[in-house]
Amino acid sequence: MFFKKRDIFLETLILSANNLKAASSLFREEINDLQDVESYAERIKVLEDKGDELTHKIIHALNKTFITPLEREDILGLALKLDDVVDGIEACADRMELYKVTEADDYIKLFVQMIVNCAEEIEIALRLLEQKKVKQMLRHIYRINELENEADQLLRESIQDLFIEYNDPIIIIKKKDIYEMLEGITDACEDVADILEALLMRNS
């Protein structure tokens, strides 16, 4: 792997990771203040739009560049998957507004904290990639995988508890949908980690 002193692809991927981290942090703020869910959903949508712009910037640059610092499919894959994570956050925030959720339960808070942690690990990993500290990246890639596994387990526990705690089918449907959307966001984070790990394996 060879990176120029200033590389548009790595710079923009890091900007996308920064945007993801901002979206996840704002989402965490939202679930602690669901009385203002509409305002938070609008602010998260702004970040989702910014993520789309950054993704389009990378695609446009790929179409104009013959030699790239990483494999083209890796750059494109990272851009699209980072965008998927932000899209997932925005979709979940929108769903919570639609469902008129007024209070986040402990499971929602745990899922969202896992998403925040994943976003932080992704940003660190990409910064290490830019610095060519590829071996140090593995620790952060593995941590994302661990967080996704924890989210899988949390989803099983949360759904099991739903059918114990609630009799109202509407509540069960809404909560189950939100839990599954949140877990799906961690899946998208793991997709980013998988691309980074494959990239490292090919270039080790």
Automatic annotation (TrEMBL):
Q: What is the top-level taxon of the source organism?
A: Bacteria
Q: Report the Pfam families cross-referenced here.
A: PhoU_div (PF01865)
Q: Which InterPro entries match?
A: PhoU-like_sf, Put_Phosphate_transp_reg, UPF0111_domain
PANTHER family per the UniProt record, alphabetical: UPF0111 PROTEIN YKAA (PTHR37298:SF1)
Give the record's family classification: Belongs to the UPF0111 family.
Q: What is this protein called?
A: Phosphate transport regulator
- Which species does this protein come from? Desulfallas thermosapovorans DSM 6562
Taxonomic lineage of this organism? Bacteria, Bacillati, Bacillota, Clostridia, Eubacteriales
